[in-house]
Amino acid sequence: MTEQQPFEVERSFDEFELRRYPDHVLVQVTVDGDFFRAGNLGFRPLIRYISGRNAQATRIPMTAPVTQEPLGDDSHTVSFVLPDGTDPTTVPVPTDASVATVAVPASLVAARRFGGGWTDARFEQNGRMLLAAVERAGLRAAGNLYFARYDPPWKPGFLKHNEALVQVEE
């Protein structure tokens, strides 16, 4: 079974959870394209990196979720979360200049779960719903909206587990 990024639920609301994520490391790439295309384009260099195409030729286990942050209409950062406990000082150096590793400090994140296939409309709608619910709860977003995919592309859409997420102020 694929390891999932750990978190603790600090509080549950009707429309989202408030989670505490520990320090973690991402491997990421920024690509151009619409939401769906960018996810596909970003996946390839990241899978090559964890498959050993890095300076140390080290294979790294796949984890879930794969995250995607829209940066504009046609630009997205796609990220893999590296396994829990990965030391950012010893992460293999990417050999592909488009791939970067990023140490992320612990954070408080609002997360809205939703199911279904990977459509732009489904992700956008759930993102808007999350931001509105966060505001109604008296919380303030402290970062960009991003999305998490937990399942492989071949899993039927009605069984997929996705999330809209945003970091919130402490």
Could you please describe the fold and organization of this structure?
The chain has 170 residues and is an alpha+beta fold. The protein has one domain (3-167): Multidrug-efflux Transporter 1 Regulator Bmrr, Chain A, CATH 3.20.80. 19% of the residues lie in helices and 37% in strands. The chain has 2 helices and 11 strands; from the N terminus they run E-E-E-E-H-E-E-E-E-E-H-E-E. It has helices at 35-50, 120-136; strands at residues 3-4, 8-12, 17-21, 24-32, 63-64, 66-72, 75-81, 99-104, 107-115, 146-149, 161-167. It has a 9-stranded antiparallel β-sheet with strand order 2-3-9-11-10-6-7-4-8, covered by helices on one side. A two-stranded parallel sheet has the order 1-5. A hairpin with a 4-residue loop joins strand 2 (8-12) and strand 3 (17-21). The radius of gyration is 16 Å and the shape is globular. The model has no long low-confidence stretch (mean pLDDT 94).
Main traits of this protein?
single chain; 170 residues; alpha+beta; Multidrug-efflux Transporter 1 Regulator Bmrr, Chain A; nine-stranded antiparallel sheet; two-stranded parallel ribbon; 2 helices; 19% helix; globular
